[in-house]
Amino acid sequence: MKVVCFLFALLALASSLAFSYDPSPLQDFCVAINDTRSGVFVNGKFCKDPKLVTAEDFFFPSLGPGNTLNPLGSKVTPITINEILGLNTLGISLARIDFAPKGLNPPHTHPRGTEILVVLEGTLYVGFVSSNQDKNRLFTKVLNKGDVFVFPIGLIHFQQNVGNGNAVAFAGLSSQNPGVITIANALLGSNPPISDEVLAKAFQVNKLLIDYLQKLFWYNNS
């Protein structure tokens, strides 16, 4: 009886995990296609006829350095289903992050993916904030070349270059399309703007400050 209960518990856990992330593929591949006349609809994308699939559907040429000459001093180059159609249903994606000295990948979240980051060059100060339930604890670490750090799904996190030279990191994400919400851009640069009264009360500041911040240009580094 104990064995049966244990097996049921494992099945329940497996079901929970399956519905929490991208759906598991039931075939070798399901290359995305935007032509709705010749595909099968799967979680936001249509599938290309498998007989027409080629190696090019799984390829991205030369993931080179991003341009960090911007107000943040960083550039995120994502490789998601939008860049490689063969990622459809595979539940994984990638990003390259380039940093100028003191460059910042600002606080943001990935609503559909956990991120694992590895530093290729330079020194990064990284961190994430836990949920309200955990009293919004801040977890931080200084990473050097070869170090790895994980950002749990949906939590606000950031990376900053604290070295004297350029820095490069690669991130793997547990979704074909993890999404990104940059906190400052979303709150202060939304279209149309969020009411200054709402934001002033939320941040406990004067509405004039909110008005000023909403007029600023909020750069998107991805």
Automatic annotation (TrEMBL):
Secretion signal span: 1-20
Residues where Mn(2+) binds: H108, H110, E115, H157
Disulphide bond pairs: C30-C47
CDD domains the record matches: cupin_OxOx (cd02241)
Protein's cellular compartments: Secreted, Extracellular space, Apoplast
An example molecular function term from Gene Ontology annotations: manganese ion binding
Keyword list, A-Z: Apoplast, Disulfide bond, Glycoprotein, Manganese, Metal-binding, Secreted, Signal
Pfam families registered for this protein in UniProt: Cupin_1 (PF00190)
Origin superkingdom: Eukaryota
PROSITE patterns the UniProt entry points to: GERMIN
Single GO cellular component term: apoplast
Residues engaged in binding oxalate: N105, H110, E115
Domain Cupin type-1: from-to ranges: 61-211
Secreted listed as a keyword: yes
Role: May play a role in plant defense. Probably has no oxalate oxidase activity even if the active site is conserved.
Family designation: Belongs to the germin family.
Name of the featured protein: Germin-like protein
